[in-house]
């Protein structure tokens, strides 16, 4: 098996190929060519950390994969990453170990790729202004992933930490105008497509800010059913698609808190993005419709990008090969 570190993986990333791979695995799940079971979230009273097992099996890649995600909010006070993970890949035919990957780079890149897939499938073709709520590493990755999805001519950024928004704006290579705004509502007043990318526990986005025809990628909240970025009115006003229904029911606070408050029901969810790509469920049906992708993150995305990265690593001679039977 091959072992790949974070720095090695960073140099292997191919964003257009990742978007295609994520679109393919979404479609495969919808058509039954991939198996995406619900995640297992583990915790005890000894701490606030959650340990999430995210697994998938794919006919297209010929692999099975499991990511173990450690979600430890208390690490922030320790000066440590609040999320850490690793991905194990096996050969689906004979069960042989294929790879062990640091999970940080794959998770960041495939998350933004999923937003790109959803935006391509659901946003209006004439969308021109891209909005970011949040200015961290995931925001930067979304700029890279979405820059070719529509003919954007402007980027609008808001962050609870204005200096980070300004730093992001100054560092980006972007062909259009970039504006840093002082209020989160200003992003929604200007943007055609918005990505929410903060680890917020309580809503920072209000439904009365939404305008007809907008598309939202709701991405940032932690994988916990009691934490969310957007309020119930946002979920109620939008037509909602998810990456995986069982996963959303387990991990999406944006969805499940709104359901608990009676703003919508699970039956109101239109379907998965994969079902749209496979032609099994409708996508956007009018220019006025507000579309929302509730992105929780699934093991199949990790499997898809891991397959790409492993093949590229072996082609370039990158990584350490280990024989665990030795």
UniProtKB/TrEMBL annotation:
Organism: Cryobacterium lactosi
Family classification: Belongs to the ornithine cyclodeaminase/mu-crystallin family.
Pfam families: OCD_Mu_crystall
GO biological process entries: carboxylic acid metabolic process
Source organism superkingdom: Bacteria
One of the record's GO molecular function terms: oxidoreductase activity
Protein name according to UniProt: Ornithine cyclodeaminase family protein
Transmembrane segments: none
Database matches in InterPro entries: NAD(P)-bd_dom_sf, ODC_Mu_crystall, ODC_N
GO cellular component labels: cytoplasm
PANTHER family hit by this protein: KETIMINE REDUCTASE MU-CRYSTALLIN (PTHR13812)
Lineage of producing organism: Bacteria, Bacillati, Actinomycetota, Actinomycetes, Micrococcales
